[in-house]
Amino acid sequence: MDLGIKGKTALVTASSGGMGRNIAHSLAAEGANVVLFARSEDKLKAVAGEITQQHGVRAVAKVGDMRVGNDVTALIELMKAEFGGLDILVLNTPRPPNPIRETTEEVDMARWDEAYQNQLAGVVQVVSQAMPLITARGWGRVIAITSASVKAPMAHHSLSTVFRAGVTAYMKHLANEVGASGVTVNCVAPALIETPHRAGSAAYSPAQAEARKKLTPLGRMGTQSELAGVVTFLASVQAGFITGATIPVEGGMVGSLF
Ligand SMILES: NC(=O)c1ccc[n+]([C@@H]2O[C@H](COP(=O)([O-])OP(=O)(O)OC[C@H]3O[C@@H](n4cnc5c(N)ncnc54)[C@H](OP(=O)(O)O)[C@@H]3O)[C@@H](O)[C@H]2O)c1
């Protein structure tokens, strides 16, 4: 199936590694040119190089912090100069603070502020500045990575749940406002996606990680490509009548009917 995004310009935030990198690869495999944005110059340049080599599209790396207004302004200027605008915006974000804790143990306001900055403020910062570029084109896609916790809060994850829910509400407002400009706005809510690059620093012990697989009817973790594929489909022409939605990618872990 041709997803209709060949030659489109896609920005993926927080894309020097992990999910952001894999989503950028997946969009590039469908022919989209990609802009990568994160703080580590070496990693970003390596990802841009591998994307160009493997998929034959343009991949531009821009170093910056999505929580910092001037860095995002510089990113917007680069997209205007290099691509004349933007079609697809994937809002991947840094993780909430580690280690995860019980809600009653989350008494350090610095951790709350970090969680807010990492998961919600950065999203608002990027959307605020990037949206005029997308609406100007009369067609666009905005996709935020949130968490399955927005539907069924997971133990020890309040620093994630609270702000992912905020992103979900923000995206719903946005969907209602920009639909008339031909722009769809959706969330992808993952859980239990394998993160091999973080194996040594995972929040879970090997025994806990094994137990987590049993949380789904499928009895396994999800793969990076299963997550990236859903994001890429939401960026497609065929997904044009889906907006204001949250698509779960959690192997059936959340046990509700809807
Ligand atoms: N795996 C799952 O099942 C799951 C479930 C729910 C939610 N999530 C969420 O999915 C997201 C991605 O997960 P992941 O495993 O890929 O995370 P990760 O490996 O920690 O990667 C995070 C990315 O964010 C970038 N980054 C960090 N701070 C940044 C900033 N201030 N501005 C711009 N970029 C920044 C990092 O690059 P630099 O350090 O170079 O900036 C890196 O590229 C996270 O928010 C995670 O909580 C994952």
Summary, kept brief:
The chain is of the alpha/beta class. It is 42% helix and 15% strand.
Structure report:
InterPro entries: NAD(P)-bd_dom_sf, SDR, SDR_fam. Belongs to the short-chain dehydrogenases/reductases (SDR) family. This is 3-oxoacyl-ACP reductase. With 258 residues, the chain is of the alpha/beta class. The chain is 42% helix and 15% strand. The protein has one domain (9-248): NAD(P)-binding Rossmann-like Domain (Rossmann fold). The protein has seven helices and seven strands; from the N terminus they run βαβαβαβαβαβααβ. Helix 5 (158-178) links the parallel strand 5 and strand 6. It is globular, with a radius of gyration of 18 Å. The two termini are 28 Å apart. The model has no long low-confidence stretch (mean pLDDT 96). NADP nicotinamide-adenine-dinucleotide phosphate binds at residues 13-20, 38-40, 43, 65-67, 92-95, 122, 145, 147, 190-193, 195, 198.
Spatial ordering of strands, largest sheet? 3-2-1-4-5-6-7
- What name goes with the CATH superfamily? NAD(P)-binding Rossmann-like Domain
Low-confidence stretches: none
**Cα-atom Rg, whole angstroms?**
18 Å
CATH architecture: 3-Layer(aba) Sandwich
Helical percentage: 40-55%
Element layout with pairings:
Blueprint: E1 9-13, H1 18-29, E2 33-38, H2 41-55, E3 59-63, H3 69-83, E4 88-91, H4 109-135, E5 140-145, H5 158-178, E6 183-190, H6 206-213, H7 224-234, E7 246-249
Parallel strand pairs: 1-2, 1-4, 2-3, 4-5, 5-6, 6-7
The chain binds NADP nicotinamide-adenine-dinucleotide phosphate.
